[in-house]
Amino acid sequence: MSARSAEEALFENPNSRTKLLLRIGTIVAALALLGLIAVIVLRFYQAGQLQSRYWKFFGWFTTWKFLFSGLIGTMASAGMAGLIALTVGLVFMAGRLSTIGPIRWVSVALIEFLRGVPSLLLIYFCFLILPPLGFKMNSYWMVTLPIGLNTAAVVAEVYRSGVLAVPRGQSEAAASLALSRWQVFFHVVFPQAIRYVVPSLLAQLVIVVKDTTFGYVVTYGELMQNAKILVANYNSLVPVYLVVAVIYCVINYALSRASQGLNNRLRAPTTRPKADSPRMLVSSR
Amino acid sequence: MGDLAKLLKDFGPAFLNAALITWKLTIISYSLGVLLGIVLTFLRVLPIKPLRRLVGVYVEVFRNIPTVALLIIIVFALPDLNVLIDYEPSVIVALVLVCSAFTADNLRSGINTVEAGQIEASYSLGMGLFRTMFDIVLPQALRAVVQPMTSLLIGLMLSTAIASQVPVPHRELTGLVDMINNETASGILTFGITAVFYVASGLVISWAGARLERKVRILR
After folding, report:
1. Is B148 in contact with A284 (Cβ distance < 8 A)?
2. What pTM was estimated for this model as a whole?
């Protein structure tokens, strides 16, 4: 019956003493918050960071154009890495679920390896280790390929969780209609599995966007790299990095919210009982 | 095989050291991050609006900012505000901030897995806010977050690679690859050994997490 969350229930009917404490707490917290803001502003002022020479170039169109081109670079890399992850992840998952032993073992090894190392290490592999061996790629691929493959391994597991969440009756019914194994999988099971995992896939995109920050390591022109150039030109570290941080936060916040929104919609009681839906894989990087 | 033997002879201790640094950074940041995350969760659950807002903003900021961008801000921008933090502590601060935000988020969803009816029942039995929180809500909430907290620990271990981006006194695994690759020609081997350390640590953590999860989970 209770549609309310535990959080709400905890403080539903506070007694008079709790009420008083909460009221005092609110006032103290509000004052502390104001104090915190004052301290930060004072810090900026004392360090001279509020001087207009550190900020005035944000009034210029060229600055925003340059940051925007960095943003385009970030999106181009993140988009392609996402595409690689979705397709290669499908191959990995198919291998992981294969009934042929060797194919399954190789897939498991690849998945565990690619998602078990930092994406930065994979970038170093493409950036430092491959070129002396004669494999050269441009800076775009040096960021995009490692991130794409790293994410592909995670996505393979996300797909798999979706496939395993499709009730067995579905594939049994399809098999009894004389569909082949491939038909059962690609016409019946996978289309349903995809529906469950769309929110998790979208949440992975947040990690992809974060990882493209390493583009500056290989001097690929993404947002962070362009920020570094701005810093070098105007000697204005705090404002530039602050603005860039806000841009990253806004993009990723929008992606997380979209993922959560989809998750809530897909979990609506009309679609299917809650107990059957797969647990949403949370992004934790 | 000769290459491997030579690499291990020359850099064997360096690999072990780097692995120890990676693990040290992981353990310190995780413990501090989880503690901070628990405190934040308490502040966020209290019905005090300014506090809720503040913690909400904190969580969204540090969940969504790229960790390496945060590190660069701490190391290169904060000195302009007269805040000087040494390189290695900077790495830890960045990881703690991110870890605490994810912990707070996980714990809050953990708390919300407890049905409101249980809290009502507890209150109607005359148990106060604190007993309800510590005896009814938290034991269940903590059990519910074992899995996400395990993936957070693995994610945090992989994130320690950002330490290679600043001149820390002791190199961790990813920074070591950079160094050895400059000095020798056995790049692939170096990469392979490093990868083994990461993958093995991750597998151990997820194995331990899965065991713990099986032990404490609540079957509903």
Report:
1. yes
2. 0.86
